[in-house]
Design goal:
The protein is an alpha+beta fold. It has 13 helices and 19 strands.
Length: 421
C-alpha cells in the first residue's frame, strides 16, 4: 500500500520535499488511513504534517469522532485543529452534501493559507472515483466528466486515489487503527449512497470488476482528453477568457445541462459535454415542469433533477420550520396537493410572520439566488394555499400543534452529486 501511494505522489506530482501539508481527517476509514500513511512516509518525503478535522454541526456524534481524530494526532505527535463550519450559509439553492463540501473545502483552504501549508491532503480513494464516474455517466457527461475526481486541484491533493477501499480496510486492520463510519454513507436520500448500494452491486452481477473498469475509464479519459482547465477553451474557442474557460470546463465535467452568462451579451451553454456560445436571453431561470405536478397521496415525485418526498407519519420530534423539509398537520391539509413553478403575484404567509407577503420578497429576504427561484417547487393545497417552498419557512396553514396526531412531511431531496466529493 505504501508503495502505491509513493508511486501516485511521484507520478502525479502531488507533493514536494519540504511541503507543509494539512491532512483533512474526519475519523472515517479513508481519512484515518491517509493520516497514518503520510505519517509513515513523512521522513522519506520530507513533509511537515498538521491534522485538521471539520465539524459540520450536522450530527451530534461528529464531536466524538473528532475527539478520536485529535487523540490519534496526539499519539502521532502531530498538531490538531478542529474547524467548525456553518453549512446553512452555503446551502442556498444546493443540496446538503454539496453545501457541506463547499463549507469544508473553504475552511480547509483558509487554514492552509493561515498556516502556510502548500497542500491539503484528502482521503478519496478508487471506489469514490468509480462512483463519481458512474454517476456522471448516468446523468450525462462529456469526456472531461469521465476523468472523474482530480488527483490534484490546488491546494487539494488525493494520494489514495489509486487504492481500492478493500486494501485501505486491510491496512487499518493490520495496524489496529481505529475509525468510525458516517451513517450518511448508507442514507439512500443521497445520490452517492444510491450509486454505492444499488447501482454498483447490480452492475457487479454482470462484471465483478466493474469498479476497476470505471477507474480505468477515468484514467483513459484523462489520457485522451484535454487537461482540466483547458478543455472549455479548446471547445468553446479562444474568445473566452481564462476565467470563463475554467468555469465552463467545470460545468462540462459535471455533466447535464447548464449555462453561464459572460460579458458582451453572450451565453455559454454546456449540454452533455458540448459547448455552444451564443446570445443570451434577457431573463433565464433553470428548467422546471411547465404543468402543475399532482400530489394525490404520500410518495416520491420527480421535480427537475431532484425529488419531492411526501411522507405521512406519527407525530415525533418537530423539524426546523424552514429549509428543504417541513411538517404539516395531516388532518388539516386539503388534498390533493400540487407542485408548480412560481407565478407572478404569488403570496405566502410564513409561520411566525404577521401576515401574507409576496413570494418574491420572501425569496429576496432569504437570499435565494435569482437564478434558482424559477426552479424551486411551489407546493400548494387543494384550496390554492402556498404551503412549502424550499429555503423558506413553511406556511402558517396546517401548522402542527400539541394536539396533532399525524404529520405530513414535505422535503425536497436534490438529485445531483457534488462535482468532486
Amino acid at each position: 500500500m505504501l508503495s502505491t501511494v509513493l508511486r501516485t505522489i511521484a507520478t502525479r506530482a502531488l507533493l514536494e520535499r519540504g511541503d507543509r501539508v494539512i491532512v483533512a481527517v474526519s475519523g472515517g476509514p479513508d481519512s484515518m488511513a491517509l493520516l497514518h500513511v503520510l505519517w509513515e512516509l513523512r521522513d522519506r518525503l520530507g513533509l511537515t504534517l498538521e491534522v485538521a478535522g471539520v465539524d459540520h454541526g450536522l450530527r451530534p456524534a461528529a464531536a466524538d469522532e473528532l475527539e478520536l481524530v485529535g487523540a490519534r494526532a496526539e499519539a502521532l505527535g502531530l498538531p490538531f485543529v478542529r474547524l467548525a463550519v456553518d453549512v446553512a450559509r452555503h446551502r442556498r439553492g444546493t443540496g446538503l452534501q454539496d453545501a457541506a463540501r463547499r463549507a469544508r473545502l473553504g475552511a480547509l483552504t483558509a487554514l492552509a493559507t493561515e498556516r502556510g501549508a502548500r497542500r491539503v491532503a484528502l482521503g478519496h480513494q478508487a471506489n469514490d472515483q468509480a462512483e463519481t464516474v458512474l454517476f456522471r455517466i448516468v446523468r450525462g457527461t462529456g469526456l472531461a466528466g469521465l476523468q472523474g475526481i482530480p488527483y490534484r486541484r490546488d491546494p487539494f491533493v488525493r494520494p489514495l486515489l489509486d487504492l481500492p477501499r478493500a486494501e485501505i480496510l486491510r491496512y487499518l486492520r493490520r495496524r489496529s487503527i481505529p475509525f468510525v463510519d458516517d451513517p450518511s454513507n448508507a442514507d439512500l436520500r443521497f445520490a452517492r449512497a444510491r450509486i454505492r448500494h444499488r447501482l454498483l452491486p447490480a452492475l457487479a452481477a454482470e462484471n465483478p470488476r466493474v469498479a476497476e473498469a470505471l477507474v480505468a475509464l477515468a484514467a483513459a479519459a484523462g489520457d485522451a482528453g484535454p487537461s482540466r482547465g483547458a478543455g472549455a477553451a479548446l471547445v468553446a474557442g479562444p474568445a473566452l477568457s481564462r476565467r470563463v474557460a475554467a468555469v465552463v470546463d467545470r460545468l462540462r465535467a459535471r455533466g447535464g445541462t447548464a449555462a453561464v452568462d459572460i460579458d458582451g451579451g453572450r451565453r455559454v451553454e454546456v449540454s452533455y459535454g458540448a459547448v455552444r456560445v451564443g446570445a443570451r436571453a434577457l431573463v433565464r431561470t433553470p428548467a422546471s415542469p411547465s404543468a402543475p405536478l399532482l400530489i394525490d397521496r404520500p410518495g416520491s415525485y420527480r421535480w427537475g433533477s431532484g425529488t419531492l418526498d411526501v411522507k405521512e407519519e406519527s407525530r415525533g420530534r418537530a423539524r426546523p420550520a424552514g429549509g428543504e423539509a417541513a411538517e404539516f398537520d395531516a388532518d388539516l391539509l386539503a388534498w390533493p396537493l400540487s407542485a408548480r413553478a412560481r407565478k407572478s403575484g404569488d403570496r405566502m404567509r410564513p409561520r411566525g410572520g404577521r401576515g401574507s407577503r409576496k413570494l418574491s420578497d420572501l425569496m429576496i429576504d432569504a437570499r435565494i439566488a435569482r437564478a434558482m427561484r424559477g426552479a424551486l417547487p411551489i407546493v400548494t393545497s387543494a384550496r390554492g394555499e402556498l404551503l412549502f417552498v424550499p429555503g423558506l419557512r413553511p406556511a402558517e396553514t396546517a401548522q402542527p400543534t400539541a394536539r396533532t396526531r399525524r404529520v405530513v412531511i414535505i422535503e425536497l431531496v436534490p438529485g445531483d452529486m457534488p462535482e468532486d466529493i
